[in-house]
């Protein structure tokens, strides 16, 4: 299979899978098997592209020309390759997890769930591989629309309300600002292709570049810069697998990925650093990092706390991009992968706790670590990676980001990164501590569901009441990933080096 | 034969009208109308093919040479509008069979086809003619027949809606005929090309200025430019489903074409936008239309009325494109004319399917329809996405060129307003989506199936086209740019 065909398959395969999923509505086992097979094939295809891309190849193809001179075209470059590997690899794991979670939780409309999930992944692949800003924008919008049914999955009033916030902010910012910025760029330069070194160089004056940067950054609502971050906490009404893969990995990372793409390939880091129009962006990102962490501290609901943590972590990447030097880009790109593994583990744990013990609030989880030791150890590993302690993957991306601040001679932002790490400890560790060291609470809702325990809905072993095996398996993989990434970070560095303009 | 195509374009529907009347039996009348509308489509396609590659076609009615005789003149601009009108006609007619049978008394069906054919004839005539007074005559034919069509609505309020439209439409027509009269008094000719030549030669007189004013106001009333849109919401709401779809997709579009023709071909850019401050006026009015009408649409409990207000807003986009007075802007106006015809026509047809099954188009009654009529509602949603301007739909292409036109003109705030106003469309479309898909159907709702294929297929043809032309823009953008350059070239 040539590179171009592989790219086409990567985008088309999930769609094909979706059709099969819809056709097998009545046979849940077959349907879930199809999802699993599709995700595995996708991961194989994506990983098969890696050798070609790392050796300097840029496989791609042109699908159609929408407006004369503007095509829906795809081209794989290292940054997109990295994001595609993360998204497709974690889709396989999440599919395992979903099967355990959805069955154990007796969710309705599972076919719709898996079908929309497949479209979302397909559009994430489209975002990864797009060769120009128009293509990226198209898949960006498809991603928004295809995740809407997932957010409102439960169809309760709260879900519908959250869906409005979700759609309102994401569609609103993308149409009002992002599209404006894209058309403006096209008007100024006559192209939207992602070009190393940027396309805006010499085409616009300083203030206009500043305005364009503003339109781009606030147009990419998925990057959740404050104050347009509200959709992300709202999206937490979705079932946990959605929060895990889409709202910790695919959707939000699509946002920061777009930020990186825009800064590297549309503006060009040299252009951006040269004009000094991005100071405000650094401060906004730093503000988001700190404030979102503080908000996370106040949340008792575990998923809400994780959501605000994500908002904060996304701004790490935006800050890395705004610092506009090579190390910052590498740190930002690496953080996409590192944070993805850490945060998905945390969400898996949150879902496992919900399924096994029906608890959502952190204050209710005293002593739960002794009942669900496996889940809590995974949570610990995920937390440490998000905080950025060795020997876990998260330490490397934070290392490079801080190095980037140092290189730009901006000590203030180094302090921001450090302060945020402390805040991470403050909002993630208490759960682990409560779980293992506090005595179990006997008072409130001790309504042990005396339901039959079978393979699909849990593991019981003495005092231990764990989540279904499928969920445990998924958590094992991702937390192992956190550890492995610590040792293989140099591969990511080498892969991203050409993007940042460093000769490997 | 081939050289008479221009005449046949109008003559065929004009002949079909009395035949419908004579055959009386409803299915035969339908077959005649079907033949008429499909023949029109073929002819307009052939005409467009001819003028894309060659010079404009000039056809002399009855061999009387212009400027004395009536000339039919087909260039890229009106060939494209002819195609839009006849294509909508050709799609709506097959749909009409079931829908009309359900909504009309059995005895009045042939009357519907008669006035429908007359209306089609009028609209095509307005578009094809190269004679200013002839244009007025056809405008009256289409108007009078549309009053009849609207009055045929089941709801008795259709009569008052039709009457309201009659009063306002007549005022508009009067303004137009006064304008044409003044031009005749000043120049002594009615042929458009001749008019343009003579107007360009002489200095601007008060008479010409007055004619310009009368014409612009009269045409704006016909195309429902804010604040002259008051006739439109009632007319579209209470008209029979087929009629709403047909008129929404064609009547206002033809009026927009007439505006283009007068502003650019008969008067010229210098007069329209230089001497007269028309660009500012159109800009302000169309921006208000975009926001005010969309905002009103959000609060409508009746979905047909909601779409009607949305139409007023969308006409704002077309006029906004015209007000930029540059190639990209005018092309955007023409592209949106085509695109809006597809999506709004498709959406009104989808509503017709809803009305066919549940005899209501009120939002409250549409609860749970997403599951009960999946194909119909899916069509509505896709049309709605296009209205919002989501990429891969035609609405996106329109918006793209509108914004480029605005930037070209240097009005970046207008560009921002275009995009902001499309967010209002998200709100009013999503209201429907939430009710149709997320609210359970009422207890007492009987078992219903989706609409019959003879209605669903035409609906999906329009909706499918609104996706197809969102991806493949060769026809729309290519023709619209050529048309815009012709319009500007003729005036400059």
Sequence-ordered SSE layout with sheet pairings:
The complex is a heterodimer of chains A (504) and B (492).
Chain A: H1 3-23, H2 28-54, E1 60-67, E2 70-75, H3 78-104, H4 110-129, H5 133-151, H6 157-189, H7 206-219, H8 231-234, H9 240-267, H10 269-275, H11 279-298, H12 302-322, H13 326-357, H14 368-371, H15 373-387, H16 394-407, H17 411-437, E3 459-461, E4 464-466, H18 469-487, H19 489-500
Antiparallel strand pairs in A: 1-2, 3-4
Helix pairs in contact in A: 1-2, 1-4, 2-3, 2-4, 3-4, 3-9, 3-13, 3-18, 4-5, 4-9, 5-6, 5-9, 6-7, 9-10, 9-12, 9-13, 11-12, 11-17, 12-13, 12-17, 13-15, 13-16, 13-18, 13-19, 15-17, 15-18, 16-17
Chain B: H1 5-23, H2 26-53, E1 57-60, E2 71-74, H3 76-103, H4 109-128, H5 132-151, H6 157-187, H7 192-201, H8 206-223, H9 231-238, H10 241-266, H11 269-275, H12 278-298, H13 303-324, H14 327-358, H15 369-372, H16 374-388, H17 394-409, H18 412-438, H19 453-471, H20 474-491
Antiparallel strand pairs in B: 1-2
What does this structure look like?
The complex is a heterodimer of chains A (504) and B (492). With 504 residues, chain A is mainly alpha-helical. Chain A has helices spanning 3-23, 28-54, 78-104, 110-129, 133-151, 157-189, 206-219, 231-234, 240-267, 269-275, 279-298, 302-322, 326-357, 368-371, 373-387, 394-407, 411-437, 469-487, 489-500, and strands at residues 60-67, 70-75, 459-461, 464-466. Chain A is built from 19 helices and 4 strands. Chain A has a domain at 278-441 and 456-504. Helices cover 72% and strands 4% of the residues of chain A. The mean pLDDT of chain A is 87. Chain A has a two-stranded antiparallel sheet with strand order 1-2. With 492 residues, chain B is mostly helical. Chain B has 2 domains: 1-162 and 228-262, no CATH class; 277-492, no CATH class. Chain B contains 20 helices and 2 strands. Chain B has helices spanning 5-23, 26-53, 76-103, 109-128, 132-151, 157-187, 192-201, 206-223, 231-238, 241-266, 269-275, 278-298, 303-324, 327-358, 369-372, 374-388, 394-409, 412-438, 453-471, 474-491; strands at 57-60, 71-74. Chain B has a two-stranded antiparallel ribbon. At the A-B interface, strand 1, helix 5 and helix 6 of A face helix 17 and helix 18 of B.
